[in-house]
Structure formats: structure tokens, C-alpha cells
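Work Package 3 (structural annotation) set out to generate three-dimensional models for the target panel prioritized at the project kickoff. During this period the team completed the workflow that converts sequence records into C-alpha cells, so that structures can be stored uniformly alongside our sequence database. As a representative example, we reproduce one entry of 154 residues exactly as it appears in the project archive.
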Amino acid sequence: MKVVKSVDDLFLPASGSVDLRGGTLRIPIRVISQKQQQDIFDKYKEPRPPVQPKKDGTGKMVFQPNENDPAWIAECDKRETERAKELFIIGIDIEFKGETVEEKWESVANVLTWGESMILLEAIFVASDVGDEAQEKIKNDFSRPPDTKTECEA
């Protein structure tokens, strides 16, 4: 057991690995720090739904959020997908091709199945203690084919 005497002793080593394809492929994963998680969640802030005018019971005009707006739903889906991609890229302890998150994601998405990606993302969430609510929002959107998305889960 290592005795921690300073902040410098608190590093985040690779937290393990995930075996895929019957154990023929071992992918190391690492812990995503609380700060890294917060930075990613802040980067992909929840968009505000558009408002629509509506008369209340007294006949007064009020403005209510329209959470059924297709453009807003699409933006929510995009935000969750981009968040999942970035968490995935940071949480996998390998070298990727490309410079941007999207380029890195494409390099791995071309060789892993969707199911394998979901297994790795789940392992990263568990290792990094990503909250249950955040996990569900990301996984629900990230795992659905684009044509089946029906609502923003923000």
C-alpha cells in the first residue's frame, strides 16, 4: 500500500483493462478525474428549449418551454453523443489516430463494434465513478441509432 504524503502522490493510473472478443483483445482503461468529468460536462452544457406562447387559465399569455421541439431534441442528442465520445477517448488508455476528439473517435469506431464500445464506456464509467444519472443520459442517447431518438433526456 502506498502512503500518500502530498498531492503529487495522487496520480490516476490506468485502472485496469477490458477483455473483448473472447479475451483476444485487451484494452486498458483509466480513471477520469472529477475535474476532467466536470470540464467535459461543462463543455457540453444542456441547451435551453425554445419557448412558446400559451394562454394560462386566466387568459394571460405565458411562455412555456417546448421540450418537443425537433431541433432542440436533436441538439440534446448531439450533446450527449459528443460527451460520450470525449469520455470514451479520455477513458481508453491507448494511442489514437487523429488530433481532435472526432478524429480519434472515428479511428476507433472503424474497428470496434457498437457493443464493444458500450462495454468499454460502461467500464470507464464504473472506474471513474460517473454518477448513475449522468451514465443513463449518456448511454441511452449514445446507444440508440439516430433514427430512433425521440426525446431529450436532459
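The first helix runs from residue 34 to 43.
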